Amino acid sequence: MTSEVEFGIDCLLADPQLLGELEGKRVALVAHPASVTQDLTHSLDALIAAGVNVTSAFGPQHGLKGDKQDNMVETADETDPQYGIPVFSLYGEVRRPTGQMMSSADVFLFDLQDLGCRIYTFVTTLLYLLEEAAKHGKEVWVLDRPNPAGRPVEGTLLMPGHESFVGAAPMPMRHGLTMGEMGHWFIDHFDLDVLYRVVAMQSWEPDGEGHGWPPSRVWINPSPNAANVNMARAYAGTVMIEGATVSEGRGTTRPLEVLFGAPDVDAKAVLAEMHSLEPEWLRGCALRDCWFEPTFHKHAGKLCNALMIHAENAFYDHDTFKPWRLQALAFKAIRRLYPDYELWRGTDFKYEYTDNVLAIDVINGGPSLRQWVDNDAATPGDLDALASNDEAAWVQTVRGHLLY
Hints:
By secondary structure, this protein is an alpha/beta fold. Helix content is 29%, strand content 12%. The chain has helices spanning 8-13, 16-22, 43-49, 99-102, 122-136, 179-189, 229-238, 267-277, 323-337, 359-364, 368-374, 380-398; strands spanning 27-30, 54-59, 78-79, 86-89, 107-110, 139-143, 195-199, 258-262, 286-292, 304-310.
């Protein structure tokens, strides 16, 4: 029988010594809607109720309230109506906290629920906060939360020169770390001189019951389209669809839980082609052909045929599910069945404010995946060899930073 998992915020609030270290200090909170305690009190309310002198709050992409539905929808700074403190946006006029923002507090509590994927921008927000804290002599505490995708690592490492807001450093797509652990790696990799502390979770087992997400805890969307654990598991693959013309299911109730959706693609034929190409990459989940009509975003108002991913319940095998390879295989199957299909969004689509680069290359941190899909002669073994080397290197690199 495993003990009840306590997240970082719960551990902080239950520890008089830790709370005592915040006495007499101005404290900032970086948070979003999933920043809640065990009883679902928002961390901002809980900290202030506990007597912590919270002097400012920060919201990442989608905002402190999590109200911004799509990517690249900015949030303005505001004043919290209840507490009268400034709420600074780290996805508005700036992505990196300014000197003025950093001057609002002495200790910065980072309490963001992550998805365990390099492209999920909260990872980069942590790096930028650490870098600015190092410059301004501030403390950063990560109130640690689970990686809902667990420890598995998958994908090629981001190539130097391909850094962006969705790719902060040479890490794979599915990185296998908590935010607390990631902070330790950032400090080591970038040689940052910063006062850093992780308020670690209690009783969290990354590959124990729930395979990353404790079944006893309620799931709250950390961003509007992260609706459940199934999405969190699939996301390291399905996020690549943001660089493609097919739909990732935005405008439906199950976004980023499909391998594709399009009015002009036969889902059953794609699935058959995937099976013939590399059946091993389909293991660990169930794939179901289905239909949807997006109310907004790509193919809005058009009936789309799709493949739905079920990495959940009895269909899920934590050790064999490979979302990045699965998504790559779906792209490859579409390319083989429809050689002239305009699969990739063009350079006119400025993904996360990049210029003159394809969104799919920004997402993958380099062109290798797209080139593999588009190369008739390239086999699943070729991509596997490329990724396996990078995955093994990453596991070795971060081994010393694991806290659980």
